[in-house]
Amino acid sequence: MMSTEAAITKFVGAIVTVLIERQGPNTNLVVQKVLGSGFVVNKDKAIVATCCHVLPEKDRNLDIGFYCKDGSGGWFISLVDTSSIQEMDGEDLLVFQCLDHNDCSIRKGFETLPISGRDLLMAEKVIFAGIPTNHLKISRPGDTNVTSRVIVGFVSAVYEKNADINSPLIKTMSGGPVISSDGEVIGIALKNVLIGLDVEMVNSEVSESGDTKEEHVYSEYQRFGFLFKSQQFLGWLRSIESQYSDA
Fold this sequence. Notes:
Layout lengths: L4 H4 L3 E12 L2 E17 L4 E4 L13 E6 L5 E13 L6 E6 L25 E6 L5 E3 L5 E3 L2 E10 L3 E4 L11 E3 L5 E22 L5 E18 H11 L7
Antiparallel strand pairs: 1-2, 1-4, 2-3, 3-6, 4-5, 5-6, 7-10, 7-12, 8-9, 10-11, 11-14, 12-13, 13-14
């Protein structure tokens, strides 16, 4: 099992909207807003996977980037070729190809993890890896401190294409990989599943008129991370990789 956040930054990044600043011969890409997480599935062709709800059609007319660390630990942004987006039929998953910018490339020093073709096991220990919003500090465009995070959990339910783990995701971790103890991508993070609400009365008062005023606290319970199983994704990815040219 991978034990440090530093290890996952070599293949996990953030899907972001960017501001393109041109000053003379130089062009800079500046992070404006984080949309969600993604991860490299083919570094030779610079192909990245994420969720459709992270990059919906309404946002595909914007300048989108994949913000990640290279092998030297430096953050860089590759623009997304939005015309290359391909969605998995009937599922909340898509892939796209990144474009090089200022000689930065996913192919240079970047690492990827193998995608597992096996099924998940009940009670299997896994980690979600992504870029959660509570680890982002963006006070203005360009003033950004982005870090990765892992959430450890155990598989609590396995379905035909999907599975649950007993730990909830943090916002914007959707689209990140779920990693097995073998160091393989075993799934893709989709969303939280909320089973219900707890209701607790914290105060009850009776007014002079006889009316009763009650105050309640509502708290979520049984929140699970919901993921798409990797062997379903792997077959689809292999069927379309040849449609992408070398980056």
